[in-house]
Amino acid sequence: MREIYPNIYTFPIVLPKSPLREIHSYVIKGEGRTLVIDTGYNQPESLADMQAGLDELGIQMKDVDLIITHLHADHSGLATLFYDAGARIFAGKVDGDLFNAMASGEYWELLGSFRPLYGISEEEMAIEDNPGFRFKLDRPVPYQVLEIGSHVQVGDFDFEVVDLIGHTPGHIGLYDREKEIMFSADTVLDPITPNITFWGWDYPNILKTYMRTLSTLRQMKLRFLFPGHRQLITDHVKRIDELVDHHFERMQEILDSIADEERVTVRDVSARIKWRIKAANWDELPKPQKWFASGETMAHLDYLVASGHLEMTLEDGVLYFCKLQSHISRE
């Protein structure tokens, strides 16, 4: 347990069987109101850590307002338990509907449709291998919508709900302009890089959208970014520049991996580029990580198609890519 700012506390929630290891849950205490931000997986180990943290602060689940920053199971998985205890649940409209669609099963049909597009067999990665499927909410949970631009007040904090679309289609943050602090969840992480994945054709070129979000954040006055994982960020400009560099380097790596006049699938490219995980090659990559890797590859390919570097065709239900330009420059 750490008090990282007056009346703002954080403690780690373990994420079993995840390379992320843990998530930071945050508690903001104010007279008459307590906010909890994000939860951990719907797993006994995550629940035990959450309960221990609340107990240490003398807080009961029933007395808090829970804010879910985005749909991923490591941030939303315990929301049903909070609701059942009597807590109020708050989330952005887009991701709130999506984490409920994950709980009801509707979302997984859409995600499953991406796998054949990528040229990947069900044997290589099935829906059941996805951590979001395994650790999701027990059932859909009623929640109150946090509109972009609305305000959440607790104690002497006045948080504006800001749009941080990119990591997910409806990721939100909480920004106190006067205090120059923001809860940014998985939008900016250090030293790891947030997963930017393909979310379907309703969200075209999501990587470009994420870059715009980073550009907006870069212009803000911020003393602290409170992230969902790893270390607190005190120099957001430096870290954002590093993340932007990473994605352009990644796209160049992808272009370099494709020979002239070659037709490749998402799987082909995913197997050629490097991943920071302990696996000698694509075949040894754990199945859950193949979901993240292939989705991230597709997001970068989508950007390269939109920028005129690649041509994309759909044949027999599989996407194929051909190189049109060999070098990418910042636009």
UniProtKB/TrEMBL annotation:
It holds the Pfam family Lactamase_B. InterPro entries: Metallo-B-lactamas, RibonucZ/Hydroxyglut_hydro, Sec-metab_biosynth-thioest, WH-like_DNA-bd_sf. Residues 22-229 form the Metallo-beta-lactamase domain. Signal peptide: none annotated. PANTHER family: ENDORIBONUCLEASE LACTB2, METALLO-BETA-LACTAMASE SUPERFAMILY POTEIN. This is MBL fold metallo-hydrolase.
